[in-house]
Design a protein that fits this description.
Length: 532
């Protein structure tokens, strides 16, 4: 064993070890060829002709040594530099003995030493390249001197000198080329590292972008999607073989239309009712793929909502006085007329209609005035389970309900959000009032509230055991003045959604598996995390 087992040269990179492994494999191949040619008496005939016994012993030793050195390299025993120096020195010694056993320099086997010198210059450039050239030159000069001593009759010094010059010239050229290769390799490695770092940076930027990014191939399959796209489109489990139409059919249709016309045919949409409204834009790549940029319009909608509420406040404040005074006069006149003609049943019926509709109009005005008086958003940090427990208790006390009729299912006891508590209270009160009105009194649990967290969203579901919302009213469920409730203004759900949007949350209708009414509030935790 050479040196300490398992000791690695920290200065040698993987490419250097692979190069040494390739040379070690070449050594084993050469040793086998030299042995097989001699053992089976194959041409050329000069191998081992001078000293066959010595040649056989040296060729067998060379095979065994080549195999052991290959194992050393494969397991990276000892340091890289030391392995190279020892292995190439062994090569020169054994090849010199093979040359001697084959008749000396006249066999032409001296050229095998050139490969060793080249390998030395390539594997460890510098003074060691000259050392191996000198050692190889010394071996051929020694062989020439030995032949001269034995009375060969013709001097081999000129041939040995030529080989030596070839060794040194080869060492110098190999060193120069090796330095150039190493310099190019380092530059390429630096460029590769820069590209890798740039790719990591790009992936980090893309993954952290608020804008969703989708890469779609020519067959409509999703090749790449960042975190934002997965979140706002609901495609967390998308695989490369999945198509865009499978996950987001409406976006797949819009992309197909865009490819046909190349005009801006993208319209705002929701991938699911519980997901935010988004709008897409597209760009074709030279590779034939299409990049889709998905913009979440929630932030814009939130700002627009606040402006709309402010404008609504100014408008309603200016007209409320003009509407309420005539309405009060009509209502008062109806009361007086009803009292004066109490014996007239037909007139009493008509004045009753006046009173009911006056009261309804007054309720609408009160609701609109309530919207106009809406204060600026003052968000605070809420632990939702505690807040919901308190809210449910207040609701049950106010309506004198059995607490068991309202069930809170908390799957995220530590869920924390950043939202205006008063406005959330107003939203929840509206949802609870509707749920209580439409629920069946014969069941113990008339309202079920579920709190959970999915990804970056905290979800509050308010469901009742009622019949659910009819298909006819679903499309206009959140529009103003749409109500199935007797005496309702049709502004409750509209106001609830407006308040949610103003706070960066989403209110959506989501019937459960039994088809019962369920309203879901999605509140992003990003705002709280940014605050923290």
């Amino acid at each position: 064993m050479l040196g300490k087992n398992s000791k690695l040269d920290t200065n040698a990179d993987a490419l250097s070890w692979r190069s040494l492994l390739a040379f070690s494999s070449y050594r084993l191949f050469l040793a086998l060829i030299l042995f097989i040619v001699f053992y089976f008496d194959l041409p050329p005939a000069f191998l081992g002709e001078s000293k066959p016994d010595l040649y056989l012993a040296i060729s067998q030793t060379y095979i065994a040594t080549a195999f052991v050195l290959l194992l050393f390299v494969f397991n990276r025993w000892d340091s890289f530099t030391r392995q190279v120096k020892i292995q190439l020195t062994i090569d020169i010694i054994l090849l010199a003995l093979i040359i001697h056993a084959s008749g000396g320099l006249r066999s032409g086997l001296g050229s095998l030493l050139v490969v060793v010198v080249i390998s030395g210059g390539a594997l460890i450039p510098g003074r060691f390249a000259a050392f191996f050239a000198a050692l190889a030159t010394f071996s051929v000069l020694s062989e020439a001197a030995f032949s001269q001593t034995l009375g060969d009759g013709s001097s081999k010094y000129s041939y040995a000198g030529l080989l030596g010059a070839t060794f040194f010239a080869t060492a110098i050229l190999t060193e120069l080329l090796s330095k150039k290769i190493i310099s190019s390799q380092k530059l390429a490695q630096e460029r590769a590292e820069d590209l890798a770092n740039l790719a990591v940076l790009n992936n980090h930027i893309i993954s952290r972008m608020q804008t969703g990014v989708l890469v779609i191939d020519g067959e409509g399959r999703i090749q790449l999607s960042n975190e934002s796209a997965q979140k706002i489109l609901g495609i967390e489990a998308a695989k490369k073989e999945d198509t865009l139409k499978y996950w987001v059919p409406i976006l797949g249709i819009q992309l197909w239309r865009w490819k046909q016309s190349r005009t801006n045919t993208f319209e705002p949409f929701q991938a699911r009712t519980d997901l935010p409204e988004v709008v897409a834009s597209a760009m074709n790549l030279a590779s034939g793929e299409t990049v889709l940029y998905i913009e979440n319009t929630s932030a814009v909608a939130q700002q627009a909502q606040q402006l709309k509420l402010a404008s609504l406040g100014q408008l309603t404040a200016s007209i409320a006085h003009e509407v309420r005074n005539p309405l009060a006069a009509i209502s008062h006149a109806g009361e007086l007329l009803s009292e004066a003609k109490a014996e007239d049943e037909e007139l009493t019926k008509l004045t009753g209609i006046i009173q009911r509709h006056s009261s309804r109009v007054n309720n609408i005005i009160e609701t609109i005035l309530e919207m106009s008086r809406m204060k600026a958003i003052e968000p605070s940090v809420l632990v939702l389970e505690t807040w919901l427990e308190q809210f449910i208790g207040e609701f049950c006390d106010y309506h004198q309900l059995d607490r068991r009729e309202v069930n809170l299912v908390s799957k995220a006891p530590l869920a924390t959000v950043y939202i205006d508590a008063d406005q959330l209270h107003q939203v929840m009160l509206n949802l609870f009032e509707n749920a209580w009105y439409y629920s069946h009194s014969e069941d113990d649990e008339r309202i079920i509230v579920t709190l959970e967290q999915q990804g970056n969203d905290v979800i509050i579901d308010v469901a009742d055991n009622g019949p659910g919302v009819s298909e006819k009213i679903r499309e206009s469920l959140f529009e103003p003045f749409q109500s199935q409730r007797q005496g309702g203004t049709g502004l409750g759900l509209y106001l609830a959604r407006e308040l949610c949007q103003a706070n960066g949350a989403r209110l959506s209708y989501l019937p459960d598996e039994q088809g019962r009414t369920c309203f879901r509030i999605n509140i992003s935790v990003d705002r709280f995390e940014n605050l923290a």
